[in-house]
Structure prediction request, 322 residues.
Amino acid sequence: MKIAVDLEGGDKAPKAVLDAVSLVIRKRLLDPGELVAIGLGETVRHLHHRLRIRKIETVECQQTVGMKDNLKQALYKKDSSIAKGMMGVKDGKFDAFISAGNTVAMVGSGVYHLGRLKKNVKPALAVPIPNRIGPCLILDVGAINHCEVNDYLHLAQMGNIYAKHVWGIANPKIGLLNIGSESTKGDKTLQTTHHELSRLSLGLNFIGNVEADDILNTDLNVVVCQGSVGNPLLKFGEGVVELVSYKLGLIWKAMMFFDRFTRGADYKQIGGAPLLGIEGNVIIAHGKSTAVVLANAIKLAAVAVRHDINKVIAQEINDKTP
Prediction:
């Protein structure tokens, strides 16, 4: 297994990424030979000489993609750490690539370099959050800003496949995020999606529309929404965790130590979001990622490689939905 890590991606790069690589090796989460570090020459030299991590493979790049770069600017940088990572996955040199860099650039570069699994299936970012029975997968959280009916149906299928094959849930419960539980709620697209998910023989355990509070307080396994809804929802949740942490101080720290639910509520424990629906394993970490977050993202990349979930999606997803 070879997992490539972008040393230049994220608000705290390269220090946070270098520390994450060191942490992964020190904790023996992966062997040094299973990691590939991609970065500018100075960053790579720092990895080898100052951190004294010499057994790890490195790839030097000449450019970096800024957090404010648009997709065109990102794709123009052919010798960036993101481009090197994506091309390495495409060429079979890397089994997975992770970065905390520009999300737009990561999604667009993934599609450009690796391609979609199927022509009509848009790639999606999926993030697990905890609810009262275990993890619940939210998708999309940033790759598809506007969903048509087919996009919602494909998201439901990808979420179903992920929950089955990665979490081992035999018959995942799937909900459509809406402004109410009734089938007549939402705009025409959401109403049609509800109708199609209810009647189509896609092998899905669709339980109907759900509201935001249902995500935490019911036994849902997968929640489907478009990225312009899922991303603010996720960030609001992160803000709540940070606010409660600030208000409760040491009490919250004790809860985080003893309570599995509250640990899972923190994006630091999640690590990153797999980009589903492309020809390869790509993990996109939070832009504010610290070393601990990125170490967890590397662990998530290893899980993605072991399950090869995008290959399973390619085999099982129905892209001929109406």
Notes: The CA atoms of residues 21 and 88 lie 19 Å apart.
